[in-house]
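can u do me a favor
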C-alpha cells in the first residue's frame, strides 16, 4: 500500500436513547493509502455516514484514533481540526448543498478564498475543474439553473478545489437517476485520479462499489 493518508484504529461511536445504548461503530480499523479510492459498502443504517462524519472531523463523541496526513485528530483543538478539514479533506454529499445565490464558478472559488488563495488563482482553478467536468458552458449559472447532474458536478469541483489529500463522498450519486449517476460517477473517479487524491466513497450499491480500487464492507458497525 502507498503511504497512508488515513489511518483509523479502534474507532467506536455509540448513542444513548432513553435506557438503550446503540453501538453504531464497534471498533473500526481502516487504512487508506495516498491516491487510493475505496468503496465503503453497506446497507442503510450500517454506520457509513457516521464513519464519514468521524473521519471528516465533523462531530465528536468518538473513541479510538483517527490519523489524517500524519496528524492524530484527538490531539487537535477545534482550530486544528478546522485546518485539517480545510487543507486535507474534500466533501461530496448526496445532495449538492451549493450556495443558491452564487454561480457555479463562485461556489468553487469560495473554499479557495477561505484558504487565502487570490481571487485570480481561485477563478483559474474553478474554471479548470468545471471545464474538466464538462461545465465550461455553465460557469455563470446558478444552482437553480443547473440540472441535478450538473449541480453534483459543481459539488465535485468544489470538493477538489483545494487539492485535498482525501475526498469523503457520502452516496455522491444517490440523488440522481441511474444514467446520470453513471456519468457523474465516472467523471468524479476520473478527476479524483487525475488530481492524485484518495477517496472514501460510501454507497449501498454493489455495482458502484465495483468501480473503486478496493471495497470494504460495513455491517452492524464492523468492517467485514
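np, heres the sequence
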Amino acid at each position: 500500500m502507498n503511504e497512508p493518508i488515513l489511518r483509523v484504529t479502534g474507532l467506536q461511536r455509540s448513542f444513548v436513547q432513553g435506557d438503550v445504548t446503540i453501538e453504531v461503530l464497534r471498533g473500526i480499523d481502516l487504512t487508506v493509502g495516498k491516491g487510493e479510492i475505496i468503496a465503503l459498502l453497506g446497507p442503510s443504517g450500517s454506520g457509513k455516514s457516521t464513519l464519514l462524519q468521524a473521519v471528516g472531523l465533523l462531530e465528536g463523541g468518538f473513541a479510538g484514533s483517527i490519523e489524517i496526513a500524519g496528524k492524530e485528530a484527538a490531539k487537535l483543538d477545534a482550530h486544528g481540526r478546522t485546518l485539517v478539514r480545510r487543507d486535507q479533506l474534500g466533501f461530496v454529499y448526496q445532495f449538492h448543498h451549493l450556495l443558491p445565490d452564487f454561480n457555479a464558478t463562485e461556489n468553487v472559488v469560495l473554499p479557495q478564498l477561505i484558504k487565502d488563495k487570490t481571487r485570480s488563482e481561485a477563478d483559474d482553478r474553478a474554471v479548470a475543474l468545471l471545464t474538466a467536468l464538462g461545465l465550461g458552458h455553465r460557469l455563470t449559472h446558478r444552482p437553480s439553473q443547473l440540472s441535478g447532474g450538473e449541480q453534483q458536478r459543481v459539488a465535485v469541483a468544489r470538493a477538489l478545489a483545494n487539492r485535498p489529500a482525501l475526498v469523503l463522498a457520502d452516496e455522491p450519486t444517490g440523488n440522481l437517476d441511474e444514467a446520470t449517476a453513471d456519468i457523474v460517477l465516472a467523471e468524479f473517479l476520473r478527476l479524483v485520479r487525475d488530481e492524485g487524491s484518495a477517496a472514501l466513497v460510501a454507497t449501498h450499491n454493489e455495482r458502484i462499489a465495483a468501480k473503486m480500487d478496493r471495497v470494504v464492507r460495513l455491517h452492524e458497525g464492523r468492517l467485514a
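The chain has a mean pLDDT of 89. hope that helps!!
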